[in-house]
Every structure is written in structure tokens, then in C-alpha cells.
Amino acid sequence: MASAEPNATKLFTRAQVAERSDSKETWLIIHNSVYDVTNFLNEHPGGEEVLLEQSGRDGTEPFEDVGHSSDARKMMEPYKVGELVEEERTSANDQKSKGPTGNADDDSSSSWRSWVIPIVLGVLATLVYRYFINTH
């Protein structure tokens, strides 16, 4: 007696997801998982336009850029219909997310530079000003 495995995850290609990209059938990819958000369009707090804009494609980067809460991530679970086939998945490095696993070094160095440059310019301006006041 052969039966299908009940917990088997359905696999989809990017082309299959791209075929479902309108308001009648809206699918998108987030972190290699495929979601059918058709029934969520009217409920999405950001408006249905946001989902329709990403429909049929990988919306991981815009999803992470918005900074969805853990509650929002839990709300997604019932809409998951499968995952991308292994060959078409992107690695975690390709899906750079903000936060501790993102580019912390780049963020801290640019923050550091944003303070040092104005301070150095201020000191230089003060020295130049004093030089001209003392010589005249």
C-alpha cells in the first residue's frame, strides 16, 4: 500500500511562480519559500499594491527592507505553498538581511566616518580662523 508522504514540501521553479502574478492569483518568493498571498491582498497593512508589485518574483529584499515583525512572519505561515527547487534557491549571503547577520562592519565604519569627518573639518576651520585673526 503506497501512500504519499504527508509532510512532503511542494517544489516550484521561479518560472512557475512568475506565472501567478496578478490579482487573481498572487504568488511570491520570500527566503526561498513560495507563498500564495491572493487571499491576503485586502488584509495586507501596507496595501495590496505592495504585494502585487512583487508578485511572481522574489520579494525577499523588499520584505526585509521594511523590517517585518515576528508577528508578521508568523502570519505568513498559512500562505506558504512550497519552496523553490534546490537549483534556483539563493543562499543566505545573496539575501543580505539587515541586522546582526548583515553588514555590521560596513554600517559601523560608515557611522564612524560620519562623525570624524565633520569634527576634523571643524578643527581645521578653527585653526585657519585663528591663524588669520592672529596675523592681522
Q: Give me the strand/helix succession.
A: EHEEEHHHEH
Class by alpha and beta content = alpha+beta
Radius of gyration: 25 Å
What order do the strands of the largest sheet run in, or round the barrel if closed? 1-5-4-3-2
Q: What composes the largest sheet?
A: 5 strands, mixed
Level of helix content? 40-55%
Number of helices in the DSSP assignment: 5
Distance, first to last CA: 102 Å
Point out poorly predicted stretches: 97-107
**What is the tally of beta strands?**
5
What is the averaged pLDDT score? Answer: 82
The global form is elongated
Characterise the protein shown here.
- The protein has five helices and five strands.
- It is elongated.
- Residues 97-107 have low confidence and may be disordered.
- The chain has helices at residues 14-18, 48-54, 60-66, 70-76, 104-135; strands at 11-12, 21-22, 25-30, 33-36, 80-84.
- Strands 1-5-4-3-2 form a five-stranded mixed β-sheet.
- With 136 residues, it is an alpha+beta fold.
- The longest helix is centred in the last third of the chain and has 32 residues, at 104-135.
Name some characteristics of this structure.
14% strand, 5 strands, alpha+beta, 136 residues, five-stranded mixed β-sheet, 5 helices
